[in-house]
User: Which sequence fits this backbone?
């Protein structure tokens, strides 16, 4: 009949990772290999109005990036997902509530170094979803000589800022590392990035 008992997705979780809000789930027990999923979300201030997510309708994968589908980054939302196979539909399963603004988890920035004659220009790029580009992302930068515990800190730079460091007095191998910052209800920051090291004013 093409009508099987389709078990609902399990472990439905709304998680924030690397600047993105993502719904994840696992297939229900005994799901056919070609099962697909459809996702919707609702805002805490408009309960029972489930909004469609066009790019997560009848998808084969078990996650949906909701970041840029959300109509507000400041209102708590939750999502739900159902399995679809042929004419069968599973029941919907809901996630918990989260909001981007206070729950966003940050990823470390990627550093680009531009070494000049007597200076070095450091810029940080973030793997941001386009819809959150305008929020006030910042970063902290650390500079230290290899083998030294003593770190010079450059703090609170805006994401598009380039930090220019005078290297006239620096001799040897120096490393840079940065972390992303975001001021919401409290200050959040990512882990520091993997160090990028350069040899400065090396004679010979």
Assistant:
């Amino acid at each position: 009949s093409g009508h099987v008992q389709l078990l609902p997705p399990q472990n439905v979780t709304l998680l924030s990772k690397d600047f993105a809000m993502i719904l994840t789930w696992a297939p229900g027990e005994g799901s056919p290999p070609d099962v697909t999923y459809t996702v919707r979300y609702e805002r805490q201030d408009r309960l029972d109005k489930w909004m469609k997510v066009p790019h997560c309708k009848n998808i084969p994968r078990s996650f949906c990036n909701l970041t840029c589908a959300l109509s507000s980054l400041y209102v708590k939302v939750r999502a739900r997902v159902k399995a679809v196979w042929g004419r069968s539909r599973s029941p919907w399963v809901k996630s918990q509530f989260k909001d981007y603004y206070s729950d966003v988890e940050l990823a470390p920035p990627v550093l680009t170094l531009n070494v000049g004659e007597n200076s070095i220009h450091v810029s940080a790029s973030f793997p941001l979803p386009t819809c959150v580009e305008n929020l006030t992302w910042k970063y902290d930068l650390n500079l230290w000589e290899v083998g030294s515990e003593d770190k010079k800190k450059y703090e609170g730079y805006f994401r598009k800022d380039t930090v220019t460091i005078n290297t006239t007095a620096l001799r040897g191998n120096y490393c840079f590392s940065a972390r992303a910052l975001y001021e919401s209800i409290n200050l959040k920051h990512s882990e520091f990035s993997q160090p990028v090291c350069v040899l400065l004013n090396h004679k010979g």
